[in-house]
Every structure is written in structure tokens, then in C-alpha cells.
Design goal:
Blueprint (H helix, E strand, L loop, with lengths): L5 H18 L3 E5 L9 E4 L5 E9 L10 H13 L2 E12 L13 E4 L4 E2 L2
Parallel strand pairs: 3-4
Antiparallel strand pairs: 1-2, 2-3, 4-5, 4-6
């Protein structure tokens, strides 16, 4: 069995978030799936401000929505200069057999993703 790399785990989280955004009627102006490059999604919807979506994927399915508050304040300032709002998507993905095991390619997994945290 082959373990998902950090990038593959991140991409899986991005796909989950991207599908939800499409269901919500948003268009993607830009998508960046490279690890540690933010924002991951820049969104457009007629009549609304631009939205920057930050996606963090981890194996924490108990509280995937936790984020670095200090870092987020810095990013919020960047978004304000662009007249954009900031949403955070914390996605927890864990092995379906045991959360102590890594997530493997082509094996079942749990997803913990409730909704977006609207930062600004």
C-alpha cells in the first residue's frame, strides 16, 4: 500500500473544497494547488466581493478548522488591499480503518469538512 504524499493529501482536500464551491455557484478566477501557496482559490460571483479561500488539509478529523491566528491576520491585511474577503476551509482526512494509520492511495478514508469559516 502506498501512502499519500503531503501534496496528494492537499490535492484531495482541494478537490473536496472545490466541489463545494461549485455547488455554491462560485466561479474560479484562479486556483493554486501548490502546498503553502495562498490563496488556493480566488472566487467570483456576480454581485459579491472577490473571495480568497485558504485550504488546509490535515489528518486531524476532530478539529480540522483550527488555524494559525497570527498568520491569518497577516493574510487578512493582504486581502483587504485587494478588496477581497477571506474564507478558511479546514479539511480533515483520515484512514477509514484507523485514524492512527496514514491515508493510503485507493483505500477508504473519512472526511471532516463542515463549512467555511468566514474570516473577513
Amino acid at each position: 500500500m502506498q501512502e499519500l504524499t503531503k501534496q496528494e493529501l492537499h490535492n484531495l482536500g482541494m478537490n473536496i473544497v472545490g466541489k463545494k464551491l461549485q455547488e455554491m455557484g462560485y466561479e474560479f478566477i484562479a486556483v493554486n494547488s501548490e502546498l503553502k501557496k495562498h490563496p488556493q482559490f480566488v472566487l467570483y460571483k456576480k454581485g459579491e466581493s472577490t473571495i480568497f479561500v485558504l485550504v488546509k488539509t490535515s489528518n486531524n478529523i476532530q478539529s480540522p478548522q483550527e488555524y494559525d491566528v497570527l498568520w491569518m491576520e497577516t493574510f487578512k491585511k493582504h486581502a483587504e488591499k485587494q478588496n477581497a474577503r477571506v474564507w478558511y476551509a479546514g479539511v480533515g482526512i483520515a484512514n477509514a480503518e484507523s485514524i492512527d494509520l496514514p491515508v493510503f492511495k485507493n483505500k477508504p478514508y473519512y472526511v471532516a469538512f463542515e463549512d467555511f469559516i468566514k474570516i473577513s
